[in-house]
Amino acid sequence: MGDAAVSTFRALVIEKTDAGNIVEFRDLTLADLPDNDTLIDVRYSSLNYKDGLAITGTAPIARRSPMVAGADLVGVVLESAVPDWPAGTPVTVNGWGLSEVHWGGYTQRQRVRSEWLVRVPDAFTLEQAAAIGTAGYTAMLCVLALEEGGVTPESGDVLVTGASGGVGSVAVALLSSLGYRVVAATGSADAQAYLSGLGAAEFIERATLAEKGRPFQAERWAGVVDTVGSTTLANALAQTKYGGTVAACGLAGGNDLPTTVLPFILRGVRLQGVDSVMAPRARREAAWARLARDLDQAKLASITSVEPLSNIFDLAQAILRGETRGRVVIDVNR
C-alpha cells in the first residue's frame, strides 16, 4: 500500500451500541476518514495501557462512535494541504486525543491535522519511532521536568516506578545514559535482569510503595518518575529529598493522591505533572530531539517487540494483566 489510491484498507473500529461496544476489524475507504488536511500512509502504531482499556471496554476511552482505536501512529505523508508537510515526510502523531475524540492509528490510512505532526528524527527508523511512541516521548518529558527542577546526576538517586512498563523502561534507559543512578521499582524478580540491562543500579519492591505509609518519611530520592499514582506517588513524595522534583505522568495504580502538604511546605518538594496528550508542538519537538541525542538505540532494541495488528485483542488483555514488558510495536499491515 504505497499510494493514496487504495480502494479499501483495514482498521480496528470501536462502535457503541445499545448492547455495548462492538470492537472489530472493518474495511474502510478514504471517504470514511475524517476531513483533516493531511493523509498518512500508516506503517506502525504501538500498544499502550490506554489502548488495552479501550479495546477491552474496561474504561470508556472512546468518547465518539464509531472510533478507530490506537493512541499512536507512525507513517509517511501521502498528501497534505499544508506545504510544510510534503509527500514522503516521515511523521509521528502521539496523543492529541487519538482513539478518544479523534480517529487513531490502528489503521492503514488516516487523515490527521497537520498541527499534530512531528517529523521523525533522522536518527530513527519508522519502527523505532513507533517503539518510542507516546510512552517513550512521555518518559523524555519526565526527564526534562527533572532537569528543569534542578535534578542532576550529582543530586542523588532517582526513583522510577512502574519501571518495566513502557514509560518506565525508556525512563530507566534515558536516565542511566545521562549519568543518573536509577532505582527501579518492580514487583518481579525476573524483571531485575531486564532493568539492569537498561541501567538500573538498584531495585525496590513495588509493594512497599503501594502500602499506605507515613505522610513524611526518610529522604531517599533526588527525583522521581512516577507512572503509577495513588499511594505509590504519595510514598514517593514523602521520601523525596529537600528541593527534589517528582514528575507524575501515570495512574496505573489509581487517580487518587492520599498525601499531605508536608513534603511541599517542609522540604520544598516539587510535584510536576507531565502531560503528553496536549503538549504543544515546540515541547514535543524538543523531546524528540533529545530522544534522538540521548536514547541508546541498543537499549531501545532490547525493550522492543513487534506484533501484528491481528493479535491486538490478546495484546490488549495482556497489557492490562501486566504481562507485557517494555514497548510493543504494532505493525498495522499484518
Q: In terms of quaternary structure, what is this?
A: single chain
Count of domain modules: 2
**Pairing-aware structural class of the strands and helices?**
alpha/beta
Which percent band covers the strand fraction? 25-35%
Q: With helices defined by DSSP (H or I, 4 residues minimum), what is the helix count?
A: 10
Task: Tell me the Rg in angstroms.
Answer: 20 Å
What is the CATH H-level superfamily of the largest domain?
Medium-chain alcohol dehydrogenases, catalytic domain
Q: Give the number of DSSP strands.
A: 16
Can you tell me the residue ranges where pLDDT is under 50 for at least 5 consecutive residues?
none
Major sheet details: 7 strands, mixed
> What's the CATH C level of the largest domain?
Alpha Beta
Through-space gap between termini: 12 Å
Briefly, what is this?
The protein is α/β, with parallel strands linked by helices and 334 residues long. The chain is 30% helix and 27% strand.
Short key terms for the protein model shown above:
10 helices, 27% strand, seven-stranded mixed β-sheet, 16 strands, globular, 2 domains, alpha/beta
Describe the structure.
The structure is a single chain. Helices cover 30% and strands 27% of the residues. The chain is of the alpha/beta class and 334 residues long. It has two domains: 9-120 and 303-331, Quinone Oxidoreductase, Chain A, domain 1; 134-273, Rossmann fold (3-Layer(aba) Sandwich), CATH 3.40.50. The mean pLDDT is 94.
